[in-house]
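Exercise 7b. Backbone tokens:
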């Protein structure tokens, strides 16, 4: 087989890139090692920046998003029982949109299926000759060995995929911050306790009230890394949420059986560069951020945008400029999102071993944030998404 761009990974970065390239008249093949059912049932993020929404609209992938997405014009922050709201629309000029990554993945898969894409359950994917002008990919499908020749390879297969490992160790730098806690998430088919997100800094730990729709809620509580999911029955999670989110949120909370529960550790991770030869990394293959700032999916989208622009420039104008500048351009936005996610995580969580000084600084910063339009503008501009 031959294509112009081989895309490794059928997550948001790979799917968005494939649809962008199609709109630009460029062929691609998406290889995904999991089944379609598995990919579409993964519970992931659900807060989209306006830049991501606009990109999906431009590439014809937003019909259901436009109909079912929930615009959010503000966000509430709470600390020790005191709550204030930041009007994102007023101070940053843009809203956020709540729309589950699961739904977005289904939308994109449905569009790509009309072109017999992605290739699901592609096993033993391997990348070859990436430092040459004639790279290729091999994989096994239904017991048959397949060779896919291409001009470029987009590594969109996440932190556990094969792509990022292909950048030689002596050329790669990694930067990492491990956080000493995780998020225990609960998904339930119950109405949200608030029409907007609530982030709470509580003596018992962080909590977040979020949603995926008007009838599906997503909640999180901060837990230690040694916690076990079996020690957290639904009632215990609901009780903990009621305490940490405060009486007003608790009064509006509808309890129900969980559809999904999981504990996710938090870390910040960036690998540089995001390009080696004809291999270009995008999304979690190159960077991971804690979910506090809701940046993971949105960074995947901006990576796909930059990479598509670079590839289009090559085919239309014979220009290498975009390809050569892709890594630096993408990383500039990535590091700003890493900084914001780190800052927001530091602000809203209780860290093990912190003394009274650390919490007093949190209280002071939140008090300043509640009163200063300049501080709210800086926070809101990053939260709703910096421009591409």
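Sequence design result:
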């Amino acid at each position: 087989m031959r294509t112009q761009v081989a895309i490794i990974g059928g997550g948001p970065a790979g799917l968005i890139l494939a649809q962008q390239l199609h709109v630009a008249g460029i062929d691609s093949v998406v290889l995904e090692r999991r089944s379609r059912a598995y990919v579409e049932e993964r519970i992931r993020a659900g807060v989209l920046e306006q830049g991501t929404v606009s990109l999906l609209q431009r590439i014809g992938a937003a019909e259901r998003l436009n109909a079912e997405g929930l615009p959010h014009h503000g966000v509430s922050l709470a600390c020790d029982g005191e709550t204030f709201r930041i009007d994102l629309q007023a101070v940053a000029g843009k809203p956020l949109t709540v729309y589950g990554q699961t739904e977005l993945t289904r939308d994109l898969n449905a569009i790509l299926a009309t072109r017999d894409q992605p290739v699901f359950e592609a096993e033993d994917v391997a990348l070859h000759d990436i430092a040459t002008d004639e790279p290729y990919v091999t994989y096994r499908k239904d017991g048959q060995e397949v060779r896919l020749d291409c001009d470029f390879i987009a590594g969109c297969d996440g932190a556990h995929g094969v792509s990022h490992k292909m950048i030689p160790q002596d050329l790669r730098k990694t930067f990492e911050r491990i956080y000493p806690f995780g998020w225990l998430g609960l998904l339930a088919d119950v109405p949200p306790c608030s029409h907007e997100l609530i982030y709470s800094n509580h003596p018992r730990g962080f909590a977040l009230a979020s949603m995926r729709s008007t009838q599906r809620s997503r909640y999180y509580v901060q837990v230690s890394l040694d916690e076990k999911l079996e020690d957290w029955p639904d009632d215990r999670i609901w009780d903990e949420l009621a305490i940490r989110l405060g009486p007003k949120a608790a009064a509006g909370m509808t309890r129900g059986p969980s559809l999904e529960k999981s504990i996710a550790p938090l870390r910040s991770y960036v690998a540089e560069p995001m390009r080696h030869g004809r291999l270009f990394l995008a999304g979690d293959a190159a960077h991971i951020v804690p979910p506090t700032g809701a940046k993971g999916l949105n960074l995947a989208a901006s990576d796909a945008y930059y990479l598509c622009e670079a590839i289009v420039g090559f085919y239309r104008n014979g220009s290498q400029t975009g390809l050569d500048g892709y890594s630096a351009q993408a990383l500039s936005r990535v590091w700003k999102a890493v900084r914001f996610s780190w800052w927001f995580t530091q602000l809203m969580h209780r860290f093990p071993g912190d003394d009274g000084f650390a919490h007093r600084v949190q209280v002071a910063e939140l008090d300043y944030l509640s009163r200063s339009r300049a501080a709210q503008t800086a926070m809101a501009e990053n939260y709703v998404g910096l421009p591409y």
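Instructor comment: The mean pLDDT is 96. The first strand starts at residue 5 and ends at 8.
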